[in-house]
């Protein structure tokens, strides 16, 4: 565990950069900035790896370029919503607040918008994959990378054929997939699955991390070891002028920096709002249960595509989780969702030992078109946003960090950031 200090305004000199958020995005940005010679302070309301970065499935899902906002999702959503424990849930008391976001989601699902989002996502994924191993070498975390691959499994030829269409699109961007038909073919890749799964698609273009929480904590420790600072402080608002940025902290103190990066996950839109940027960030609440090591001989990530969850092999156990609950930041967790996924997993993975698990719920910060916000604040160019990665924060962390570091230092980013512009939703509703 990294040592943290309480951040305060008592600084003898102005810090080059304050990064708000000590999840995998914020810490990756901090490392990229530090490697370019900047002095860096990271602040977080609760400390490193306390949010979504701790409980994700641990996958670098580079081939997942097809946006969640799509006609397929729109068509499937009514059926999902009828099942309160299914892949998608919207609590009734939160539904009115979701209407503007869902209308934007529907607009982003139009064919032309989907095509544009796919191209943008593919560009970011390619850059993220290219940036990952150098970034891990820089932070001393290379031994945590696993190139074990992933397999989607299906109970029907119809679902299999629909998924193959998305895979065919991804092959145009250099990703490779292997269709598998029949229990024997599936068992060669992953023994022990229920025979109900008759079709599958395997890829080696998913990588994995040993454990996402341990990885994020290792990033924090490496940062402080190289002279970066990490502080416990809750940023409430930002103000900026030509000379720098002031971060207003919950305890009434302020922090000063030449530049700031907002990477505060699901809380980021509140900070953007203090600068006048209205960004439609919502929270996809994800649930999982992590079972002890040895619960199952799981050899790669398995995605149960028709049920909306995954089984992930971690160094710390087997994680069963996923699904989406559009419930905001304040509703209490509904752990019946994690229990429902675990019950299904018990049937899908005969022999799975379901005792001794730890339940978790976390907030995935999501924008309606599935793309993150990466770019400058509208009226404060010395503030850069890096949030809204949804299910792909770990996957896109190294690439996002490199792009943000380019903006911080005045270099040209490696890819076109226009599709990720934070103000792209302005005027849509």
Uncertain ranges: 1-12
Main beta-sheet strand count, sense and barrel state: 9 strands, mixed
As a percent range, the share of helical residues equals 25-40%
From the N-terminal CA to the C-terminal CA, the straight-line distance is: 44 Å
Tally the beta strands. Answer: 21
Q: What Rg is obtained from the alpha carbons, in whole angstroms?
A: 21 Å
- How much of the sequence is in beta strands? 25-35%
Mean pLDDT: 93
Give the overall shape. Answer: globular
Count of helical stretches: 11
Characterize the structure shown.
The structure is a single chain. The chain is α/β, with parallel strands linked by helices and 429 residues long. It contains 11 helices and 21 strands. The protein has helices at 24-35, 52-55, 71-82, 95-108, 111-139, 157-171, 183-189, 212-225, 268-274, 336-348, 393-409, and strands at residues 5-6, 15-20, 40-44, 59-61, 88-89, 145-146, 150-154, 178-181, 199-203, 206-209, 229-232, 235-241, 244-249, 254-262, 282-291, 301-304, 309-314, 317-326, 358-366, 373-376, 383-387. The strands form 3 sheets. Strands 1, 2, 3, 11, 12, 13, 14, 20 and 21 form a 9-stranded mixed β-sheet that branches. Strands 5, 7, 8, 9, 15, 16, 17, 18 and 19 form a 9-stranded mixed β-sheet that branches. β20 and β21 (383-387) form a beta hairpin. α1 runs parallel beside α11 and α5 (111-139) packs across α11. The longest helix is centred in the N-terminal third of the chain and has 29 residues, at 111-139. The radius of gyration is 21 Å and the shape is globular. The model is unreliable at 1-12 (pLDDT under 50).
């Amino acid at each position: 565990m990294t040592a943290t200090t309480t951040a305060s305004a008592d600084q003898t000199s102005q810090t080059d950069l304050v990064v708000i958020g000590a999840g995998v995005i914020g810490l990756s940005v901090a490392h990229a900035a530090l490697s370019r010679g900047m002095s860096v302070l990271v602040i977080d309301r609760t400390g490193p790896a306390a949010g979504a970065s701790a409980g994700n499935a641990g996958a670098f899902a580079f081939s997942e370029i097809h946006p969640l906002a799509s006609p397929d999702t729109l068509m499937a959503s009514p059926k999902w919503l009828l099942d309160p424990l299914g892949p998608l849930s919207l609590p009734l008391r939160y539904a009115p607040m979701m209407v503007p976001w869902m209308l934007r989601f529907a607009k982003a699902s139009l064919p032309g918008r989907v095509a544009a989002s796919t191209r943008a996502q593919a560009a970011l994924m390619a850059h993220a994959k290219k940036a990952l191993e150098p970034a891990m070498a820089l932070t001393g975390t290379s031994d945590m990378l696993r190139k074990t691959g992933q397999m989607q499994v299906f109970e029907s030829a119809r679902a299999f054929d629909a998924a193959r269409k998305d895979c065919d699109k991804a092959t145009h961007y250099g990703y490779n997939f292997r269709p598998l038909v029949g229990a024997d073919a599936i068992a060669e890749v992953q023994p022990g699955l229920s025979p109900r799964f008759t079709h599958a698609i395997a890829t080696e273009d998913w990588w994995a991390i040993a454990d996402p929480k341990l990885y994020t904590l290792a990033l924090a420790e490496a940062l402080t070891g190289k002279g970066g600072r990490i502080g416990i402080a809750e940023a409430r608002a930002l103000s900026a002028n030509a000379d720098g940025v002031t971060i207003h902290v919950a305890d009434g103190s302020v922090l000063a920096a030449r530049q700031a990066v907002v990477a505060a996950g699901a809380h980021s839109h509140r900070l953007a709002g203090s600068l006048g940027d209205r960004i439609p960030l919502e929270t996809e609440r994800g649930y999982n249960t992590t079972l002890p090591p040895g619960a199952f001989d799981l050899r790669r990530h398995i995605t149960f595509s028709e049920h909306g969850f995954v089984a992930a092999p971690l160094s710390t156990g087997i994680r069963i989780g996923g699904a989406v609950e559009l419930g905001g930041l304040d509703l209490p967790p509904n752990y019946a969702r994690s229990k429902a996924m675990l019950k299904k997993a018990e049937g899908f993975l005969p022999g799975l030992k379901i005792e001794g698990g730890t339940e978790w719920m976390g907030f995935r910060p999501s924008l309606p078109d599935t793309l993150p916000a990466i770019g400058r604040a509208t009226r404060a160019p010395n503030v850069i946003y890096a949030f809204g990665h949804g299910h792909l924060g770990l996957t896109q962390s190294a690439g996002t960090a490199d792009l943000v570091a380019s903006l911080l230092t005045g270099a040209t980013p490696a890819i076109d950031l226009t599709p990720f512009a934070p103000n792209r939703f302005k005027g849509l509703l």
